Amino acid sequence: MTEAPVAPLLYLLTFSHRSKEEAEKPPLLSPAVIMKSLVLVALGLLLVVERNVGVRQAFNISREYDLLEPSSCHFIEGIETGAEDVDILPKGLAFMSAGLKYPGGPNFKPNEHGNMLLLDLNEENPKPVVLGISSGFDIDSFNPHGISVYIDDKGDSVYIFVVNHPTNTTRVDLFKFQAEEKSLLYLKTIEHELFLSLNDIAAVGPESFYATNNKPFLSTLDGVDGIYPNIPVGNIIYYSPEEVKEVAAGINVSNGIIMSRDNKYVYAASLLGKSISVFEKLDNWSLSPVRELQIDQLLDNLCLDPTTGDVWMACHTDAERLFHYDPKNPPGSEVLRLQNILSENPVLTQVYVNNGSSLQASSVACVYDGRLIVGSVFHKAIDCDLHNTATEN
């Protein structure tokens, strides 16, 4: 048998446990050893290929789609750093979280803190107003993400729950809306060890809520290369001053969460699962799974039409373009409408699709009185008149 040089990978696989005396001798490769090493290398390459294929499928990489844009859509003046989440009061006042700095993601004004915006949808061309926040709150580190509004039983107090990520932490800040001053009264900060990486929130009381943890195993957004699409890492937490508990688990990157019109059900979006899970809310605030609807798109936040009960969702067309931002090839936007979610035959309709040439990285889509408001993670926001059904392809 002749001696032969050993490739580095084969050497590591085959000879990493040789004795000191053996290590001083040039390794001899028998046919059996070579075959074993090649099999191990092949298995390793197969795993890499399989993961890459899984990532491409899970992230809709290079997905093909047709553009669909209502001709009535226009940018909302004054929104330049996104409106990651939106919640609308019954009389048309829309709250928006703006300026989210997500680790690893783009931000067009990195030296400015985030803000809460107010948009009056009763106006024909509303302009957002920055809501002032009372003393005692650290506005300089404000990094707002998901939001939810709760109106008390008397209807005269409006509470705003905001997921906040100051300095790479995650918490919920609670405010009370002061309508005359157009400002927020800071009430308290809520933190808990189960708040691992909060994304969205659904208020169910003046101090209680459901919230989604979207990626508990990561402290930063590592992009496509740092996410394993087949590992369901997300969950849902219930919080009240009396009790905090996990109420759902095994969600593949849990994202948006809302309540049904009758408050009997919870709808939660899975980004990489590309689905909406329906849960029944039990008397003890636990959640019982009812069904999972496969949507096959990368879902972000959810909004409920208070009149019809339809679920509106914003989606990302290609997650690689979202996580690996390139201004020359920006992430696209998509809006879907889901009707009759609790029926045997729900109806899913595509309402808006753009390749990033107009709106980048849509994150939320909400309706009010025939108008569609679409926000984004870090870009702009658009206002569409749904009464005008003409579209541009």
Question: Concise description?
Answer:
Its cofactor is Ca(2+). With about 400 residues, this protein is mainly β.
SSE blueprint and pairings:
Layout (H helix, E strand, L loop, with lengths): L7 H8 L4 H4 L7 H28 L10 E2 L3 E2 L9 E4 L4 E6 L16 E6 L8 E2 L1 E2 L10 E8 L6 E7 L6 E8 L4 E8 L7 E6 L5 E5 L20 E6 L4 E8 L2 E6 L5 E6 L4 E7 L5 E8 L3 E7 L6 E6 L2 H5 L9 E7 L7 E8 L7 E7 L2 E6 L5 E4 L5 E2 L1
Question: Could you please describe the fold and organization of this structure?
Answer:
This protein is mainly β. 11% of the residues lie in helices and 39% in strands. It has four helices and 27 strands. The chain has helices at 8-15, 20-23, 31-58, 319-323, and strands at residues 69-70, 74-75, 85-88, 93-98, 115-120, 129-130, 132-133, 144-151, 158-164, 171-178, 183-190, 198-203, 209-213, 234-239, 244-251, 254-259, 265-270, 275-281, 287-294, 298-304, 311-316, 333-339, 347-354, 362-368, 371-376, 382-385, 391-392. Strand 18 and strand 19 form a beta hairpin. Helix 1 (8-15) crosses helix 3. It is globular. The termini are far apart. Mean pLDDT is 85; it is low at 1-18 and 216-226.
Quaternary structure: single chain
Helix count equals 4
Task: Report the helical percentage.
Answer: 10-25%
Distance between the termini: 69 Å
For the secondary structure, the number of strands is 27
Structural category? mainly beta
Strand order of the largest sheet: 7-11-10-9-8
Overall form: globular
User: What Rg is obtained from the alpha carbons, in whole angstroms?
Assistant: 24 Å
Largest β-sheet summary: 5 strands, mixed
**Overall mean pLDDT:** 85
Strand content: 35-45%
**Which ranges are low-confidence, i.e. pLDDT below 50, for 5 or more consecutive residues?**
1-18, 216-226
Keywords: Calcium, Disulfide bond, Glycoprotein, Hydrolase, Metal-binding, Signal
Pfam families: Arylesterase
GO molecular function: arylesterase activity; metal ion binding
Catalytic activity: a phenyl acetate + H2O = a phenol + acetate + H(+)
